[in-house]
Amino acid sequence: MGGGGGGGEKDVVDVEAVVVGAGIAGLATALALRRAGVVRDGGGVVVLERHAELRATGAALTIFPNGWFALRALGVAHKLTPRYEPYETSVVTNLESGATQVFRFGGHRSRSGEVRVRPVHRKALLEAMAEELPPGTIRFSSRLASIGTEPAGDGSSTEELAVVRLDDGTVIRSKVLVGCDGVHSVVARWLGMSEPASSGRSCVRGLAVYPGGHNVKKELRQFLSHGLRAGMVPISDTDIYWFVVNNTISAGKPKCLE
């Protein structure tokens, strides 16, 4: 899928699709392109990741039934569901009034059984998707130097190819370029898209690990106050995923937490 390059170029690679970013979105996009038959087997899609390895660090996330149906279509759900038990309830406590409400998550029935809400480690999700891609699909330590276009074929067509140049001199030409490179996306900037809009919230999340076990009931616990939301949910017998969400505070208007 490549050829010799001139003009100081290390290599010239021709593929059908380039995905920038090997996070959840990038790996899912590459898998979807292959599953749908949009790209050929054996190197039709390449995923560019600027880090030296898969960024499998991070906390966890809760996946609802529609997400599990998507993971089924990608061919990875069966790797994850045996490892993570579903949970059915969310207990929400208002810290100002003391009132507590219990909500129940519904499932969706399918031919292979009921699909329910489950939490998963982000690391496990990334690794499950990466394992389904052919070796060499993800090109690590690949930093973009520039993005451009050039005419496809002999120039008689109006079609264009995306031309991605990496800082090591590699040139990758593709019919499709997909940006999955996060909030400061290089691809989005090249396309002229506007800067990301603030959600008005900030969030801290993490994992609490109890080597001897935590004995916490498998349900989502949430605590609400003015402008604040905190929660936790066990994702295994030893790990508890937790998060704190805070409404963005404007400069000059500090808020004291009691």
UniProtKB/TrEMBL annotation:
Coiled coil: none annotated. Signal peptide: none annotated. One of its GO terms (molecular function) is FAD binding. Residues 14-200 form the FAD-binding domain. InterPro entries: FAD-bd (IPR002938), FAD/NAD-bd_sf (IPR036188), MOase (IPR044560). Keywords: Monooxygenase, Oxidoreductase. The keyword Heme does not apply. The keyword Ion transport does not apply. Belongs to the 3-hydroxybenzoate 6-hydroxylase family. This is FAD-binding domain-containing protein. It comes from Oryza punctata.
